[in-house]
Structures are given as C-alpha cells and as structure tokens.
Specification:
about 325 residues, mainly alpha, single chain, globular
Length: about 325
Amino acid sequence: MGQTERKKMIKKGVQILFPLLLGVAILWWTYRDFNFSRVWDVLNGGMNYGWMLFSLLFGMTAQLCRGLRWKQTLEPLGEHPRTSHCVYSVFISYAANLVLPRVGEVSRCGVLAKYDGVSFSKSLGTVVTERVIDSVCVLLITGTTLLLQMPVFATFFEETGTDVGRYAGVLTSAHFYLVVICVVALLVLAFFLVRNVTMFARLKGILQNVWEGILSVRRVRNVPLFIFYTMGIWASFFLEFYVAFFAFSFSADLGVVAALVMFAVGTIAVIVPTPNGAGPWHFAIITMMVLYGVGREDAAVFALLVHGIQTFLLILLGIYGLAALPFTNKSKRL
C-alpha cells in the first residue's frame, strides 16, 4: 500500500470516527449521572405505544414529501427518474447519514445515477439547492419561534424567580464549551465537504452541471406544489416530534408552542456532525424540557427514547429502500 493510499484511508477513518466519537462523548457527558433503569420502567408501562407509532407516520411522510420535491427539481434538467426511486433514495440517504453525517446527500445521487441514469453532477446540484431552501426554512422557524416565545420566557423567569444574572458566568460553564466544540466540529465538517465537492467537480469537469442543478429550482413547473411539498416536509417533521409528546405523561401537557421551541432548537442541534444529531440533540431537548418544568430525569428519558425510536425508523426505511430498488428496477425492464 502506497503512502497516498494510506493517507486516504486515514482520512476516511477520521471522517467516520470523528462524528461518532463526538456524539458518544456528548451523550456520555449528558447522561453521565442518569439512572438507565428509568428507561425500562417507562418502556414497561410508562409509554403510550399508540401515540409513538402514530408520530412515526409523520416521519415517513416527511421523507415521502422530500422524494417528491426532489423529483420536481430534476425535471427541468431533463431528468425523469421514477417517483419510487426518488423516495427510496431519500430513505437510503437518511440511513446513510447514520454512518457518516451528510454522506446521504451524495448517496442518493448515486442511487438515481445507477437505476435511472440521472446525471450525478446535476442531481448533486439540486441537493445543494434543497439544503439552501431547508436552511431558510429553519431560519424562518427559529425566528418565528423566538418572536412568539420572548414574552413566555420573560414570564417564566418572573414566576420562577430564576436569577438571570447567574448566566454572566457562562465562560466558566461546561455547557458553553460543549456548544463551542459542536460549532467547531460543524465548521470542520463543512470545510471537508466543500473541499471534496470542489475537488471532485474540478477533476471530473462537472462544475457546470452542478451549477445547472443548483439553478434548476428557478424552472420548476409547478411552484405551488413545490411549496406544498416543502411545507409538508417541515410540518411532518414537527408533527413527528410533537405527537411523541403524548406518548408520555410528563410531556403530554406541554403544548404546541413548547413543542415548537424544542423543535427549533433540536433542528439546529442536529446540524452538528454526529450520527442523526446524537448527543447535541439530546442535550438541546433535555435543556429545553427542563426549562419548561419537566424533571431532568424524565426529559432525559424522553430524548433517549424518541431519538432512539426515530433512528430505528430511519434504519428500517433505509433497509426497505435498498431491498425495494432492485425489484422496482426489474419491473421497469419488464
């Protein structure tokens, strides 16, 4: 094995292990004093499985809407993949992100290239556009939530008598350094992704195709439908989270506004490069639930079970997508 190949293997190893180790470290810090027997108690009678299963339907709906929206952005480029392939590739992409954060965006482009002959570079450009649109949606959700909840936060501090001045010592808080580590990790991942995509485009001479894919959204034929799918994605993600509240007695009465706040904070947290946001998401949800009066142990149970069950759903859908693709492709040939 040459030195160049050895460096590539080390680099790939670091890219896989770093997000995993970061997630494990944050999870360990978050649950270092947690009594895990509480989880089994909740599973053995403290959780309403009907509500939990109902919440997962919205998780599947979100991915379905994403697949349908993606097909729309590909059509102006002269690419017409099967609708089922678009949806299955999205299933696979979410599962792939559990192994290596953000690799799913590339993997779903590869799926359509293999099964429908879609230009990899053009589809990659549409994924970039999707991410920009989704980032705008996150900013809108976060901004709206902040405006709606400013009076609520003021009332909370007034009624509980919380000493806001104690936050002046934030530089000595472990929470502060945890956030700093997450931000640095995100910047490092962004650097490698941008560099890798740029190098790939330069070496393959496909930068123009990528750019064409990025601009494809301008030529989407049915704009209202595109907007509907986009709203469907984020409404479904929110409902998946909110409906899960009703699966537990300690969160059933929190209300839709509290859910919106936690959803916004959790959505930002999953940007940190860990598998499915494991660690940062738990930390964010537990912190916000405690702010709304839920006991820390109950909040920790909620975060652990909801995240774990939703992650299991992503794995199942990814496996289903992988299994279904060859059959749908075979039926196309027939």
